Fold this sequence. Notes:
The structure is a single chain. The chain has two domains: 5-134, NAD(P)-binding Rossmann-like Domain (Rossmann fold, 3-Layer(aba) Sandwich); 168-390 and 410-442, Dihydrodipicolinate Reductase, domain 2, CATH 3.30.360.10. The protein contains twelve helices and 19 strands. It has helices spanning 16-32, 50-63, 69-77, 88-96, 110-120, 141-154, 170-180, 183-186, 211-236, 245-257, 394-404, 414-432; strands spanning 5-11, 39-44, 79-82, 101-106, 130-134, 160-163, 194-202, 259-260, 268-273, 275-277, 280-282, 300-307, 317-322, 329-336, 354-359, 362-371, 379-387, 411-412, 438-442. By secondary structure, the protein is α/β, with parallel strands linked by helices. Helices cover 35% and strands 24% of the residues.
Amino acid sequence: MTSRLGTLVILGAGGDLSSRLLLPGVGRVLDARDEAPFLLVGVGQQAMTDAEWQSRVAASFEAGGATGSQSERVRLDSVYLQEDVTDPAALQRILKRCEGVPALYFALPPSVTIAACTALEQVELPEGTVLALEKPFGTDLASARTLNQQLAKLVPERQIHRVDHFLGKSTVLNLLGLRFANRIFEQVWDRDNIDRIDIVFDETLALEGRAGYYDAAGALVDMIQSHLLVVLALTVIEPPSSIDPDDLRGAMAQALRSVAVHDVSQSRRAQYTAGRIGDRPVPSYRDEHGVPTQSTTETLAETVLSVDNWRFAGVPVRLRSGKALGHLRKEIVIRFRDVPHLPVGLRGREGPVRLRIALSPEQVNLDVMLNGEGDPFTLDRMTLEAGFGPGELGPYGEVIHGILNSDPTLSLRSDMVEECWRIVTPVLEAWRAGVVPLDTYRAGGSGPANWSGAD
């Protein structure tokens, strides 16, 4: 274990990620958990005074609901440094400004993160230094391996936090409790009872000014490789002996090693054209500011995977994520097989029974077939619904709390990162070669007309 952190350094502090997600998470942790105060240092290339930085921190803290004395104390003591984080001399100056054990949070694009970590090799890091990296890790499998090798030269694996805020979501973590604390579910969580699994993350948001990053990534890398594969790992994980970081992450890595794409023709990609989402007009993706006019980047991605192990062999798993869609849908859907025999005389059953685990809002729905009103021989589908308790800190608050307390439970191990890239590589290569056509869909719609709907 490392020493108690004395400084949190946000590299890329002037960006949207910092102001919209990271800083509100920091504020919530300080107030909700009465976290010991630390020095907060913002680093960026744009010019900014300490007062301007503190004003930005105040706005982010307030947006996250943090107005307590602890968050105010950290805000007033925070400082801003204008530095090039790919320059070893600049990194040395940043570390000299830190107090106690520092945590460096890379809120930067993948290419800049790689360059900064390379420069860190020429800098003497204080003992116990923690490195926190935002996803995606690298730009492909080779760069992810290179980055992991570079990080291993700098600090021990336990001091590296590869951040995935999906792991901070209470809903996703509650999946472990739902499965392993309820015998009724774990007993049927296998190929004999499950027909298919769908993990869907459809957003109504369009590009929202992220062209610089998004056009180089696309929906497959931005969401499926970066997040949904981790959700899949938790969905098909074998029962760990504990939720200790080593046990839990080891079981997740084992689950990912069993996942593969066997048929790239079952993958699909599409890009949105002009339309409306509610009352809001949305330009076509290629007309968005900063997007090349001939861009072939997908804004909707879907792929079917296999889980090649004893429990799930033969169960197709579909991952889908897209932007500028007409309806928000964020859920895991477990579709169960039909009963082997329905007594003759019962009628009215429509479709399979499903368990829906919503990622937003946080709830779980289970379909059951019951005798309906009136004719007792006619079955009606009823839905049992329960809400998950809301998380105290929110997704980024949980991530920040883990970093501050040297707890890697909610971060990814190096092998997990590389497995995620391995899984999507055949799809990426097929798309770049033009094997899978780029379809289009109207912003505000449900996707291309020739795509079948989700279960």
